[in-house]
Amino acid sequence: MQIPSELRYSSDHEWAKADGEVVRIGITDYAQDALGDVVFVDLPKVGTDVAAGGALGEIESTKSVSEIYAPVSGTVTKVNDALSSAPEVVNSDPYGAGWICEITTVTSTEFDSLLDATAYQSLTNN
Predict the structure, then answer these.
(1) What share of the chain in percent tops pLDDT 90?
(2) Alpha-carbon distance 58 to 84, whole Å?
(3) What is the pTM of this model?
(4) Which DSSP string do the residues of 43-99 spell out, in sequence order?
(5) Residue 28 in 3-state DSSP?
(6) What is the CATH number that goes with domain 8-108?
(7) Which 3 state secondary structure label does DSSP give 41?
(8) Digit-coded pLDDT (tens) for 67-89
């Protein structure tokens, strides 16, 4: 299981990567593996305001449907439209081409409070 050290993680198995005020979000390798083959991603709408811990959308797999939660508060400014026609990319490249959306946030404290790779590794080993 991959857990890139440069990312931050939520206890709900989303990853986050900050570039200034913009935070790119996806689901972790652990989450995509637990879901199985992803067949549909319900992306959030650009312009939607979200609160940390609030639902962003859903991921449907051959096993189940799972919520995607926002690890930070802010406004959805970009979505990965490629997932509409190729949702399986979430399985093959969860930390790259399988990203879900970008949120512009006004506070870095929520991002800073997310789990680092070591803490996320401990979470997934329990």
Answers:
(1) 91
(2) 12
(3) 0.93
(4) PPPTT-EE-TTSEEEEEEESS-EEEEE-SS-EEEEEE-THHHH-TTHHHH-TTTTT-
(5) coil
(6) 2.40.50.100
(7) strand
(8) 999 999 999 999 999 999 999 99
